[in-house]
Design a protein that fits this description.
26% strand, alpha+beta, globular, 5 strands
Length: 118
């Protein structure tokens, strides 16, 4: 579970998405093209062709949230897989992406699970 957000999964819509789509258009894309449930406890992240704008769709209780981010300078390090593919990432990778970093950070400390001290 993504404790930072309370959501179980983060899905990136690889390639470019037409960000003129509103909540209904993005939710339909999640359901029809990605075969995922837009009402699940997941975040769905979309990026435009220029890689300087993102939209994040999430369901909460009785309605959708739509977050929008536009960079004034620079680009997101968005994965260039085929349009229509999705990629599951964790919340930490999403934060890296939002901060302008690559999804894979080989020098980052690995996550350590809690264990019993003896």
């Amino acid at each position: 579970m993504l404790s930072e957000t309370g959501y179980d999964r983060v899905y990136l819509a690889c390639g470019a998405t037409d960000l003129r789509k509103s909540i209904d258009g993005l939710a339909a894309l999640v359901k029809e093209s990605f075969h995922l449930d837009p009402f699940s406890r997941s975040l769905f992240v979309f990026c435009n062709r220029q890689k300087n704008k993102l939209k994040i769709l999430k369901w909460e209780h009785n309605g959708f949230w739509l977050y929008y981010r536009r960079l004034e300078r620079g680009k997101f390090r968005w994965p260039d897989k085929n349009d229509g593919d999705t990629m599951a990432v964790d919340y930490r990778q999403l934060r890296w992406l939002l901060d302008g970093l690559e999804l894979r950070q080989p020098n980052a400390h690995p996550e350590v699970k809690a264990r019993t001290i003896v």
